[in-house]
Design goal:
The chain has helices at about 30-40, 50, 65-75, 95-100, 125-140, 175-190, and strands spanning about 1-5, 20-25, 45-50, 60-65, 80-85, 90-95, 120, 120-125, 150-160, 165-170, 205. It is α+β, with helices and mostly antiparallel strands and about 220 residues long. Helix content is about 25%, strand content about 25%. It has six helices and eleven strands. The protein folds into two domains: about 1-100, 3-Layer(bab) Sandwich (Phage tail protein beta-alpha-beta fold); about 120-205, Fusion Protein Consisting Of Minor Coat Protein, Glycine Rich Linker, Tola, And A His Tag, Chain: A, Domain 2, CATH 3.30.1150. The chain starts with a strand and ends in a 17-residue tail after the last strand. The strands form four sheets. Strands 1-3-6-5 form a four-stranded mixed sheet. Strands 10-9-11 form a three-stranded antiparallel sheet, covered by helices on one side. Strands 2-4 form a two-stranded antiparallel ribbon.
Length: about 220
């Protein structure tokens, strides 16, 4: 079902020269980001609720027109926007070829990095390594999700209690049944430690097929 979301009365928007507005939207669930965006602008947005479920927004922080801000919000989501007039827009899926390009690691929510993150002069790689290790262990627990023969790129945010707040597969592993099992594993994850308070989120983790990249150190199926 297509839903229509209209701007609410959130007070006067902070507009500057040339129709610029100031946005301070961190990376978050796409549904939440869109609601915050709609509350701030005078643009009506048409979007299918199932299309934005389990997706993360890109951060939008700075001065932009309402159209530019919406386009930036959708970077890396596999979605794009079609403007229907001065005050309305529709969010639609990118063509499949463009989705692959949009999901490349270089465009996925900076400043997170597949191998680790360093931001603001702080090295967060030890925590990312912990997340990577425990995610790998969880995936190793089931033959259906055991890494080694598929590529997996995921984004997840960790709450102050160490549980997973939001998680999504950036791209399919090529097997819908395995994708569903991985999504279930992600929802049930709980980490030994909470994230550092200032660490950028979501965290991006990549597992590649055997032979290169980051791999889970799974025990052999026989337990050896």
């Amino acid at each position: 079902m297509i839903q229509s979301a209209h701007a609410q009365d959130a007070g006067p928007a902070r507009r500057g020269a040339a129709g610029l507005m100031h946005f301070d939207l961190p990376a978050q669930s796409l549904a939440s980001a869109l609601q915050s965006y709609i509350d701030q602008t005078d643009l009506s947005v048409l979007v299918q609720s199932s299309m934005i479920a389990q997706r993360m927004s890109a951060p939008v922080q700075g001065d932009y027109t309402s159209r530019e801000a919406l386009q930036r919000l959708l970077v890396g989501t596999g979605l794009t926007v079609r403007f229907l007039g001065e005050a309305a827009a529709a969010i639609v899926a990118l063509p499949q070829t463009q989705q692959s390009a949009a999901a490349t690691p270089s465009e996925v929510i900076p400043p997170t990095d597949i191998a680790g993150i360093m931001a603001g002069g702080v090295d967060y790689r030890p925590y990312v390594a912990l997340v990577q290790q425990q995610l790998g262990e969880a995936l190793c627990a089931s033959p259906q999700t055991r890494p080694g023969n598929y590529r997996l790129l995921v984004q997840l945010s960790v709450t102050r209690s160490g549980t997973v707040g939001v998680a999504r597969l950036v791209d399919s592993t090529g097997d819908p049944v395995r994708d569903a099992a991985i999504a279930q594993t992600l929802r049930q994850l709980a980490f030994d430690l909470p994230p550092p308070a200032a660490m950028p989120q979501p965290i991006t983790i990549l597992f590649r097929p055997q032979g290169g990249g980051i791999l889970a150190d799974c025990p052999s199926p026989e337990g050896g």
